[in-house]
Amino acid sequence: MKHIARKRFGQHFLTDTGVIDAIVRAIDPRPGQPMVEIGPGLAALTQPLVERLGRLTVIELDRDLAARLRDHGQLDVVESDVLQVDFSALRASASGPLRVVGNLPYNISTPILFHLLEHVAAVQDQHFMLQKEVIDRMVAAPATADYGRLSVMLQWRYAMENVLFVPPEAFDPPPRVDSAVVRMLPLAEPPVLDRRHLAELVQVAFSQRRKLLRHTLGKWLEQRQAGGNFDLQRRAEEVPVAEYVALAQATQA
Ligand SMILES: C[S@@+](CC[C@H](N)C(=O)[O-])C[C@H]1O[C@@H](n2cnc3c(N)ncnc32)[C@H](O)[C@@H]1O
């Protein structure tokens, strides 16, 4: 029976075989690698991936789609909201760190990225299709309009690159926005850091983008009697990730 795309699940199914091939090539799946696909949908990526891997774990929230996928002999189907999935537990029962992939539901793409950040130690790499505008913000350099909280909160932990542009016509139904594929590699030697403390600091810094940091972060640092030589005569978007990290390390309890 034909599946009717469900808007509430962010369902836009890939149909362009050239784009599907290009994504699979960018992922470069090898036999036996432990891989998890988020939101397999009608299996546009799932099928070419599992043909190369042999086995694949998929996480799908839509009950009807999960039921179809269970008929496929090479898939381990987790019928769940991905935000409830314990990736560290999946890693514990796999033969190595996980490769995580997916054409993500755009309405919850940022929560998914932050959920995976909690399980980063379980992950080898991530390849995600996302709204292009979100990827632009993820990979943005300081002193650009796209540089913000998302850039800092991901760049301190991952090396990231935009690997493919994907136009709306590659999907059925087409989304209203351009898409792209991002590659995310956890840094081999990440800074030792309390992520929640960095998140608080960055939130304060970017709370008023246009103002100098002395109006925002200045007060926050004063309360902590810290930040002695940190230059507050700048805007939040001018501060490189490494400086935010160093300030978080210097001010955390
Ligand atoms: C953009 S579609 C991609 C479908 C397919 N991978 C493709 O490329 O054609 C997103 C998929 O994620 C599923 N999904 C939506 N919300 C989800 C959630 N919270 N947890 C797991 N899967 C979800 C949808 O049902 C849908 O299959």
UniProtKB/TrEMBL annotation:
InterPro entries: KsgA/Erm, rRNA_Ade_diMease-like_C, rRNA_Ade_Mease_Trfase_CS, rRNA_Ade_methylase_Trfase_N, rRNA_adenine_dimethylase, SAM-dependent_MTases_sf. Keywords: Cytoplasm, Methyltransferase, RNA-binding, rRNA processing, S-adenosyl-L-methionine, Transferase. Its EC number is 2.1.1.182. It is found in: Cytoplasm. Residues 19-188 form the Ribosomal RNA adenine methylase transferase N-terminal domain. Specifically dimethylates two adjacent adenosines (A1518 and A1519) in the loop of a conserved hairpin near the 3'-end of 16S rRNA in the 30S particle. May play a critical role in biogenesis of 30S subunits. Belongs to the class I-like SAM-binding methyltransferase superfamily. rRNA adenine N(6)-methyltransferase family. RsmA subfamily. This is Ribosomal RNA small subunit methyltransferase A. It comes from Hydrogenophaga borbori. The gene is rsmA.
